[in-house]
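Q: Hi! First time doing this. I have a protein sequence and I read that you can turn it into a structure. Is that right? Here it is:
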Amino acid sequence: MKQTGNRGEDLRARAQQVIPGGMYGHQSVSLLPDSFPQFFSRAKGARLWDVEGREYIDYLCGYGPNLFGYGFEPIDQAAFRQQMLGDVMTGPSPLIVELAEAFVSMISHADWAMFCKDGTDATTTAMVVARAHTGRKTILVARGAYHGSAPWCTPRPSGILAEDRAHVDYYEYNDIESLEGACRKHRGDVAAVFASPFRHDLLRDQTQPDPVFARAARRLCDEAEALLVLDDIRAGFRLARDSSWATLGVQPDLSTWGKCIANGYALSALLGSDVARKAASSVYVTGSFWFAAAAMAAGLETLRQIRDTDYLERISTIGARLREALHQQATNHGFGLRQTGPVQMPQILFEDDPDFRLGYTWTGECARHGAYLHPFHNMFLSAAHGPEELTLTLEATEAAFASLKLRRATLQPIPKLAGRLG
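A: Yes, that's right. Below is the predicted 3D structure, encoded as structure tokens:
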């Protein structure tokens, strides 16, 4: 294969030969602007370096896992120490007990914990436990919500049979009548209602949960003797030091956790109340690497940092400053932004941009100037995003707004996105 001298382009060409589509899942950049790198050589704090050596202030945090920043030494050292003692062993290390105790002590609804590797593991295990507990089939989820990539919940239909989703039905998030209707439709057969802490769907504004809706979901599950499952994979510990609905006064029966609970090490969790303990004991779920000790050591140190530091307050402060500064920059250049959701997990879309050409071009320019922002997926801040990172980000976004203003009249629809936008 002929080499171009550009390592990133050469790697993409090589990947096309040996990886279906060149890359897959959320790590594919096939829908992103051409200025977005596919491969990275290293990461530290809130920064990434691509294989060409270009540096970026990163607002994806690995799509969420890095809460304290890449290469955060206290967490890495905890994992490395355990790695030298033993990681994947014939049985678990004592850390699994310590980690379960730590979660139960921190999460107000939790009486027990089970551990796995990624978010799909946790949500699918929650579904199985709910069915084991109730002896019923139907799972209710919000339309458009993401709960993983297993056949029952993947957002893409290729390779999926109707039977894979035969007992999954939908309601509209924040719509009590819609959820009531779904419960009536499946009266006597609802095993669980899945809910996200807030609506963080792709390609749309984020929506905060209506406390009245959250309380109604709890009430409807109680009336139906079904389990309420809070999918906290994406938002867990970025909104609160408890489950994300604890601030609303609503406690789920089960909650799923992942992404940032071990600051980049592969670990996810299913937490539950005593009501589902017997069912959780009855199901058979496992994985060769689910009991690996190094990630659990990282998880224990991550939980300690969550308990003992002001990480959440710092993330919230920087997120608020970023939101206000971007609003001012956009206004100065004649653009309107829709910045929705929690400031710790921003979604940034443009007004009057139905085909995303403004946001797509702007984030492409941001990447050229060293800020990695996403055109249609919610983003994540970490405790490593400090004043210096904010200053460099705003220099990049200012340059991107200036470029977008010059190019606005000549912008065309984005062919890459046409299929996703219908």
